[in-house]
Amino acid sequence: MMNERSLHLTSVQFHYKEQILLSIDDMQLHSYGIHIVAGKNGAGKSLFMHLASGRVPPSIGEVYLKKDSKQVDLYRSISSRYDIRLLSDDFIGDVREKVFTYLFEVATAYVSQRGNALCEEVVRVLKIVDLIALQHEKIERLSFGQRRRLSMAVVLLGKPHFLFLDEPFTGVDMQHIKHIQHYLNKISQDTCIIMTMHDIDLCRNIPLHALLFVDEGSVSLLQPTADNLERMAQGLQADV
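== ATP-binding cassette domain-containing protein ==
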C-alpha cells in the first residue's frame, strides 16, 4: 500500500545517570486508531510521548518511522515533524500576537500550500477548536482553556498521520471536549492518535484501538476491554 506509515520502537531504554526510567521492548503503531496512555503520576507517560514522537532520543534502541519502504530516524529527521506532532503541556509562542497571525506563521512551517490555501487551512483548524470568533484577539487575552485549544489547532495543521496529545483536555470545558473528541474519532481511520489521559472516564465513549499502560518503567500494550479500562481507572484513582 502506498503512503503506508508505521512507528517503531525497538529495544528502547531511556536512562538518567545509572537509572533506567523507561523501557520498551518492541512496539509498533500504525497510522490509524485512538490509543490511550495511562499510568500513575511520575510513571513516565510524558517521557513515553516525547520518546515515541522523536522529540527526545533514546539512550539505547531505535525509534523510527517506516514510510513505504524507507526507515526514518525520528530524532535526526526534521521532515518527520510533518507526519508526527506532539501537543505538550505549555503554550509555545508570543502571547502578544493575534490568534490568526500566530497560527498563520506556524502553518508556513507545516503546510506546503501558500496564499489562499494556507489561509483556508488556518480557518479550518480554528473552526475545529471553535476559536474562529477569536481569530483577531490577542493570545494574551485568551483563557487557559482557549490557549489549550489553540495549541491543539497547531498540531492539527496539515493533517499529520501521528498525533501525540499529552493531556489535551486539561482546562477545556466539557462542551469543547466532546466537540474535539468527535473530530478525533472522525480522523482516527487514517490518523494514529495517542493521548495521555488522567481521567479515564473521558475515554469510555471513545472507540479505542489500544491501551498503553505505563507502570514501573515499562509500557504494556493492552486490549481496550471494559475490564482493562476499569483496572486502569482504579489504579489511577488510588494515586489521587
